[in-house]
Design goal:
By secondary structure, the chain is an alpha+beta fold. The chain folds into two domains: 2-75, Ubiquitin-like (UB roll); 84-167, [2Fe-2S]-binding domain (DNA polymerase, domain 1, Orthogonal Bundle), CATH 1.10.150.120. The protein is globular and about 45 Å long. 33% of the residues lie in helices and 11% in strands. β3 and β4 (53-56) form a beta hairpin. Strands 2-1-5-3-4 form a five-stranded mixed β-sheet, covered by helices on one side. It comes from Massilia forsythiae. This is 2Fe-2S iron-sulfur cluster binding domain-containing protein. Pfam families: Fer2, Fer2_2. Residues 1-76 form the 2Fe-2S ferredoxin-type domain.
Length: 169
């Protein structure tokens, strides 16, 4: 059994108790995904599964993702260029210490995919609408699981809004 991580097949650990986060950090030395609280409360460990579904890797066992594709922040860049959302974070000062940044970026990519699929949030007004706009409240609700101790939220939000505007159909 293997997990495809950033485009490379990786054997599932023999120990079924290994979290996906520990597989990434301790076994594969992919240090972009951070271990913040290790309880699923801070979002620093957010990665993408099967393209654009965001999960908290500290709360997932690696064996659960056998046969799936996992993308970490290291897997977002292509051909030596930053992912457009990574570039937007740079341009809008969407980080200070940078510890939460990988999780914020992966979560924002997953959040934008949820919007495209019409997945409602707690603050979505019209549940029958064919699409959901990225309003101020939608953005903050959908990103509320990703904490930033430095308080760089204004830059984070500006980067996401800019990227979403360029990505929107």
């Amino acid at each position: 059994m293997t997990i495809n991580i950033n485009g490379a097949d990786t054997p599932v650990p023999a120990d079924p108790r290994v979290s996906l986060l520990d597989l990434l950090r301790e076994h594969l030395h992919l240090s972009g995904t951070k271990k913040g609280c290790n309880q699923g409360a801070c979002g620093a460990c957010t990665v993408l599964v099967d393209g654009d579904r965001r999960i908290l890797s500290c709360m997932a066992l690696a064996v659960q993702y056998a046969g799936h594709a996992v993308t970490t922040v290291e897997g977002l860049a292509a051909d030596g260029a930053l992912h457009p959302l990574q570039q937007a974070f740079v341009e809008h000062d969407g980080f200070q210490c940078g510890y939460c940044t990988p999780g914020q970026i992966c979560s924002a990519i997953g959040m934008q995919a949820e919007l495209r699929r019409g997945v409602p949030s707690y603050v979505t007004g019209d549940l029958a609408a064919p699409s959901i706009a990225l309003s101020h409240d939608e953005l903050r609700e959908r990103m509320s699981g990703n904490l930033c101790r430095c308080g760089a939220y204004n830059g984070i939000a500006a980067a996401i809004v800019e990227h979403h505007g360029k990505e929107a159909p």
